[in-house]
Amino acid sequence: MRPDFGEVAEASLDGVYRYLLYLTHDASLAEDLTGETFERALRSWRRYDPRRGEPIGWLCRIARSVALDRFRADERRRARERRYAAGAGDATEARFVEGLSPELERALAGLSAADREVIVLRVILELEAAETARLLGISPTACTTRLNRALQRLEERMESNALA
Amino acid sequence: MPSPDLIDFDRRFEQIVRELRASAPPAPESVRARLRELASAPAPERPLLRRFGGRRVALVLVPVCLLGLVAGALVAGRGGDGGRPSAVSPGAKQPLTARREWSGAATATQQAFDLAKPPLALGGTVHGSAPGKTFAPATLPPDRGRLQHYDVSLSLRVRDQDALSKATNDAMQIARGFGGFVAGVEYSSAETTRGDALLTLRVPIGKVDQAIARFSKLGKIREQHVSIQDLQATVNAQNRAILDTRKSIATLQEKLLDGSLPAARRLELQHQLAAQQSRLKALLGSRGSAVREGRLATVSLGFTTAKRQAVVHHTGRIGRAAHHAVTLLARIGAGAVYVAILLGPLVALGLVLLVIGRAWRRRGESRLLARA
Questions:
Q1: How many CB atoms are located within 10 Å of the residue B117 CB?
Q2: Do A47 and B53 touch (CB under 8 A)?
């Protein structure tokens, strides 16, 4: 039986927001993209098939598409890209996520969006490897490898930051 | 490459994982409020066509198209069938003008005969599904009061090689039975090709209509050709010429009996007599030929075996309509195969491009995320 969109959205909101926050590394942009994601999800809610996976996976797929559209648009418009880069710098200075140690936060800021994406999906949202791999369009093995490398890079950056 | 099950990042990066999970931020209240507003708003109206999923539309459209195709084929089959003369019910009379050729100038009598007769009324069933039309023989009897050159050619179709042999023998016996003879026979048959036989028969003209009726039962008539040429006027003219020549000969012979004729005159008369006698002989010969021609009709019989795959008899309107429908569907199928052969490489190329495009897009996304 198809679940109610409101209930699903309420239950998945934090997860989608966290995903976009880690992906963009920008809290205000993540808020915008979260709203956009759920608008798009509502429009295509009839296409969601509960047998194919959990709602969070489906919503993260939409969120990823929304974020990529935004990244592309930013790249096309260089002025906006500069503003985004400046904004990203501001966000780093204004605390990316409350509760993180400064070393971890700085290390996360130094990672690429792809690394942060796999970390948030597998570590924070705790999606299965298969589900994450499907979302990223890669094999489960590649997904695990990417996660491992991302965490390694995160660890190395934390150590180098601590030494510095 | 490590297997997903072999890497336990929870343990290996325990501190980082614990910290990340502990500090997972909730969504801001502003986003939550926006979402509630969004969820409580009425669902957006979808375009009529988009309300149905692609699969549902396909599930309806594909059977409808197939049904339409079959119905169209059936209608076309019935239409094609109805347009043929085979739709004539057995026993129905239908005017059908047979091919009639007058190889010479017909006399007034013959023209009157021709005009007085109604169009050839041909009864019986015409099987339109066969490669050639079959019909009953034309009843065009000769005028027994006049000498006529009567030439009939019948093209008949027989079932197979055995029937061809039997029909050829029967035709010769029929001709002999009516007091005629076989003027010529050409017979050819092979196992793989179509067999045929061509007979030239001479039948007494008084019995030619009976003979034709018998011949027509030896196979299915595909073509009939009757040619009548009046010979009476020619014979009458020859009779008059013969009479005049005989009179001339008698006159010349009477003159030659005169003993006082000069030698030169006698020689001249003898020459004239010889010429007249020669002319009489030629005229008698011509008349004899004409009379013989008028006594015997020439019947050309052509037998042909049907191609095995063509001998498909479908009885009834439904059977014929079904046959046409199946034929049409087979043609459509052949066309579909033809189109598939033509479009196959293009479709394969499209699929390859699709896969390449997808890989390219993923690569672009990865680069984009790596830069972001």
A1: 12
A2: yes
Query: Tens of pLDDT along B180-200?
Result: 899 888 888 776 667 889 999
Residue B94 CB neighbours (<10 A): 13
Cross-chain Cβ contact B22/A141 below 8 Å = no
Backbone angles phi, psi at B94, to 5 degrees: -145, 130
CB distance B205 to B148 below 8 Å = yes
Q: Please, are residues A144 and B4 in contact by the beta-carbon 8 Å criterion?
A: yes
With an 8 Å Cβ cutoff, is B257 touching chain A? no
pTM for the whole structure: 0.46
* Beta-carbon contacts of residue A104 (< 8 Å; ≥ 6 apart): A154, A158, B16, B19, B20
Of A5, A18, A143, the CB nearest to B39: A5
pLDDT at residue B196, rounded to an integer: 87
Question: Cα–Cα distance between A33 and A20 in angstroms, integer?
Answer: 7
Q: For chain B, report the end-to-end CA distance as a whole number of angstroms.
A: 27
Q: Does B24 touch chain A (CB under 8 A)?
A: yes
CB contact under 8 A, A141 and B2: yes
Determine whether B341 is exposed, middle or buried from the number of CB atoms within 10 Å of its CB (0-12, 13-18, 19+).
Answer: exposed
pLDDT, tens digit, 9 for 90 and up, residues B112-153: 333 333 333 333 333 333 344 445 555 566 776 778 888 888
